[in-house]
Structure formats: C-alpha cells, structure tokens
Design brief:
By secondary structure, the protein is an alpha+beta fold. The protein contains seven helices and five strands, in the order E-H-H-E-H-E-H-E-H-H-H-E. A five-stranded antiparallel β-sheet has the order 2-1-5-4-3, sandwiched between helices. The protein starts with 7 loop residues before the first strand and ends with a strand.
Length: 168
C-alpha cells in the first residue's frame, strides 16, 4: 500500500477528546498548533505507525489490532445507515473532506514511551523496510522515532492520550 504523498499527519498529546474537539470546532482547527505535536508526513496511524510499534516490541507487523477511535469529525459516518447498508455520500461532507482526528490506544502510547535512544538506529532500520517509508532517509526516521518516543513519554507522564490529525 502506497500512501497519498500529500497526506499530512500530526501526532499530538491532549488531556481528552473534549479538548481536541474544542480545538477542532474552531474555524482553523489546527491541533498541531494548540498541543505539543510531532509532524509526521505520510505516517498514518493505522498501518505505518503500527509497523513502528511492532518494531519496538520486536514483533512482526500484523494488520488489525486495536482500532484507533475517531474523534473528529463528530456524528455518524455518512456512508453507513443504521441498518448497516452503504449509501451514496455527499463529497462535501466533513467525513469525506477532513481533517480527521483519531485517538490512539493508550497501549500504543505506552509502547512508544519505552523507546530508548540506543535503539533508534535499529528501529529506524527495521521500520525503513516498510514499503510506505522507502522514500525517507534512515536519518529522518531516527529523528522521527525519537520525537514520537519523547511525545509518548510526556503524554504518559501527564496522563494524557495520543492523537493523530490527518489532512489531505
């Protein structure tokens, strides 16, 4: 799976979903400016970040796992009815246009918080094998892994959660 090269992902920490929704409801809706964050272009939480989590745990990556919980936009997803059938979608609906915010499981935060500086080169080399990361240099990945680990440790210490804002 190759990700859209324009996908912007910002990982950030916040106390709870109410704080995140308050920022998102503002016209600008830029959580990366309101909360401590790490910009991680094309590092989606569902696939690419989970590959890093697997590397930290020294496990093989497996698709699936605990799903990220959608925080923004709010309301029901427009393409699924109450009966579970798929409907035609308004292309201007916020669910289609974004931005989107998901809350990562606290387990993900806690695993990222265990990243030690001495493991950065090994983790970057392992993570770089992912098809989605091939255009990135190992040095960039080392820096990104370090920054994500620091963010996770700070979130854990402050009893906060990790979120990811995605936009096109």
């Amino acid at each position: 799976m190759i990700l859209d090269l324009d996908l912007q992902t910002d990982y950030f920490r916040a106390a709870d979903e109410t704080a995140v929704r308050t920022v998102m409801a503002d016209k600008e809706g830029k959580p990366a400016e309101a909360f401590e964050s790490v910009r991680a272009k094309r590092i989606d939480p569902t696939t690419v970040l989970r590959r890093l989590v697997a590397a930290v745990e020294t496990k093989e990556f497996e698709a699936g796992g605990a799903p990220d919980r959608s925080i923004w936009p709010t309301g029901p997803q427009p393409w699924v009815t109450e009966e579970g059938s798929i409907t035609e979608v308004d292309r201007e609906d916020p669910w289609m246009t974004g931005p989107w915010v998901v809350e990562l499981p606290d387990e993900t935060r806690d695993i990222l918080a265990t990243i030690e500086r001495k493991r950065l080169p090994e983790l970057a080399a392992r993570w770089a094998r992912a098809e989605e990361l091939r255009p990135l240099a190992t040095a960039e990945l080392v820096q990104l892994i370090h920054r994500l680990g620091v963010l996770a440790r700070r979130a854990q210490k402050a009893q906060q959660h990790l979120y990811c804002a995605l936009s096109g």
